[in-house]
User: What shape does this take?
Amino acid sequence: MSTNTIISLKDIVVEFDGERVLEGLDLDIHDKEFVTFLGPSGCGKTTTLRIIGGFVAPKNGDVFFEGKRINDLPPYKRQVNTVFQRYALFPHLNVFENVAFGLKIQKLPEKEIRTRVLEMLELVNLKGFENRGVNQLSGGQQQRVAIARALVNHPKVLLLDEPLGALDLKLRKEMQIELKKIQQSLGITFIYVTHDQEEALTMSDTVVVMKDGDIQQIGTPEDIYNEPKNAFVADFIGESNIVPGIMKKDFLVEFAGRDFECVDSGFTPMEQVDVVVRPEDIKVVPTIAGHITGIVENVTFKGVHFEMEVLACGTHWLIHSTQSQAVGASIGMQIGPEDIHIMHKMEE
Ligand SMILES: Nc1ncnc2c1ncn2[C@@H]1O[C@H](COP(=O)(O)OP(=O)(O)OP(=O)(O)O)[C@@H](O)[C@H]1O
Ligand SMILES: [Mg+2]
Assistant: This one.
């Protein structure tokens, strides 16, 4: 455990009705970090948050907070607060009372409550909304109240479970930027859950990619995008071409019917591998200049680039290019050594 680790999960196993939902999770989360759990529906993101919050007890394994084992500490004694996907605001209370609720229960002096609530409302850009009923707020405003309420008692860690899921795309983008600002200005740890890869990549310091109750990869957004550990991560994180290949020797891989130079080494000679190539990394060139020749099957304009489906060597390739091609045209496809990512086949 490194010195600035705030939360540590060790070999966490969770079962519901005899079914394993977390398969021995190990994870260190650092102080002041923005960490995101990313993965498909049902992979165990919420369950992991609930383990940290204390709402679910693991069948096996330990949870540490600043080096102390907290398995037996009830949620309200943990220095952690949660913003749920459904904000669960108190409908009969106004904005001020919603945010003040936890502080009132702690019986803090009126004056301190007032100062802290107003400070939080200012932070989330809701100054002047104190007396509004929460049902008279937009979705985005309600979400800010939920965030203010979770932050008002100064938790060291904030857990956010798909907090922007109910918002439309534009508001979602605005709130992403605001949340990131809030996290940085308060200097606290955010643990964020989403199944939106773009959201994870733009907001996080660290992304934890999960599948079937297991961690597939932990890394910075750049690591995860540029150096995905396996075909699942590559596919989940962005559109990718994933084709079977054979690693002939170090720096030489065969796929699509020919040998390619690559930058990978350390595989067993003749190992069956997955080869991942991003759509934006395939260069469209005249057929004689290409490594592979393909036929354009479909072209869609995507705003900044054209997305083309190209049939080559029995595989449908996705290519992003700023130049459009005619459907039915033969094109050359060039793939440089740096653009080829080799992955061990995943165990099923
Ligand atoms: N209280 C429960 N009882 C039984 N099964 C549960 C319970 N909570 C979660 N599960 C199961 O555990 C698995 C993981 O659920 P979890 O809510 O952690 O997934 P998730 O990654 O948050 O998914 P989503 O993106 O859909 O929210 C799912 O198969 C789910 O059905
Ligand atoms: Mg969930």
